[in-house]
Amino acid sequence: MEQIRDWAREAARAADAKGGDDTVILEIGAVLAITDAFVITSGRNHRQVQTIADEVEAKVKACGGPGPLRTEGRHEAEWILLDYGDFVVHVFLDETRSFYDLERLWSDAPRVAWSEPAVAGTAASGSSRAE
Predict the structure, then answer these.
(1) Which of 1, 78, 82, 110 has CA 20 to 30 A from 32's CA?
(2) Does domain 2-105 have CATH number 3.30.460.10?
(3) What predicted TM-score, i.e. pTM, was given to this entire model?
């Protein structure tokens, strides 16, 4: 499970690096049998959503992670789903994320901290987004 968390954290950091908004990791394995974690983020326009998804895919592979087993929604770029089996990355357009509200749907799932530790005297990257 720790390897899965590491890959999910890398996906969250990649999304954050490309301006992903309110990036969260939900550990849902205890409530959903098909996967262990959701990474959820959003972008302000279709191009940014595609860019975030591309960066997530590249960074997960670069850290030794797998490629996605399935990808959905790339053409429309309103909700791109990268299914890695053990974790799923959801990259939403802001309005689409608000409509589906996965965080509310899976509100019982614990959140996984994903930001890197703060350097003395500075705030941690993504610290306002991770819990």
Answers:
(1) 78
(2) yes
(3) 0.86
